[in-house]
Amino acid sequence: VSGLGESSPHSARAIWRSALPVWLGLMALLLLTLVLAYAPLGAFNSVAAVAIAFLKALLVVLFFMHLKRPDPLLRMTGAATLLWLFFLFTLTMADILDRKPPTQPGTLTPGTHQSAAIAR
Amino acid sequence: MSVSPPAMHEALREPWHSLHRQREGVGFGVWIFLGSEVMFFGGALMVYTMYRVLYPGPFAEAARETNIWYGSINTAVLLTSSLTMAVASEAAQAGLRRLPLWCLPATAALGVAFLVLKGFEYNEDITKHLMPGDNFPLHAPAAQIFWAFYWLLTGVHALHLTIGIAMVAFFWVQAWRNTRQLTSPAFEGLALYWHLVDVVWIFLYPLIYLPGRSM
Q: What pLDDT is recorded for position A104?
C-alpha cells in the first residue's frame, strides 16, 4: 500500500465524493459550536468550543492533509509537532496554575483582580 | 538530464530519481515547515491562554465585542476554501486538468473573500475604538490584552492567508501555461500549507469570537 495517495480516486466524481462529506462535517461542527457558545453551560462553554475546534482540525488533518494515509514519516512529523505543543502548554500551565501565594507585590496569579495587576 | 522523460514524469525534478521519492520529500519538508508554524502560533495561543486564565471576566467581556457574524461567515468561507484546495490537489495528482484549473482560482477567490470580509470587520472594530489605547471603550484594563491578541493573531493569520493566495494564484498561472505539470507534488505542498492556515483559523475562531456569548 502506498502512503502517498498514488492509489487515490482518479475521477472528478470520486474526488468530490470523498471530499464533500468532510466539508459537510466541518460545516455541521461550525454550526454546533456556534449554537453551543450561546447555551448557558458555564465553564463547559470553553471546553466544548475547544473540543469542537480539535474535532474540526482532526477532520482537516486526517482527510484534507492526508494523515489517514499510512505514511509513517508524515504521521511522525505531525505527532512530533503535537508533542512539542504539549510540552509548551503543560510546562507553562504547570507554572501558572500552581503558583504559591505571592511573596512579592505585583505577582500575577489566577483570579488576581485586573485593576491591581495591570500597571499602566 | 539528457534523457527526455516520459510525459508522466515531467514533474520530476533534481535531485529525485522517482516522482514517488519527490512526493515523499515534498510532504516531509512541508510538514516540518508546518511544525515550525504550529510552534509560532502555538506560542501566541499559549500566552493568550495564560492571560485568559488570569483574567477570565475581562476576556469574556472583551470577546463579546467581536462581531460574531463576520467571524462565523469567514470560518465557513475558509473551510470551503479548504474543500476546493483539497479537490484541486487530489485532481491534480490524479492527472485531471479541468478540475484543478477551476478549483485553484476558486480557492484563491474564497481566500480573497475572507480578507475582504476581514477588512470590513477591521473597519468596524476601528470605528468602535477597539484598539488598545486611550479611547478603548471597555473599562477592565485586561480587556485591552484580549484586543491586543485579536489584532496580533488575526493580523498574522491574514498575512499567512495573503501569502497563500499569492502562491495559489502563482501556481494556477504556472499550471495554466503548462510551465508546471499538474502532477507535480508541489501542488500537494501548497495544499498542505493552505490547510494549516485553515486549521489555525479553526482554533482562532472559538478563542476570539465565542467566549462570553452565553453570559
A: 72
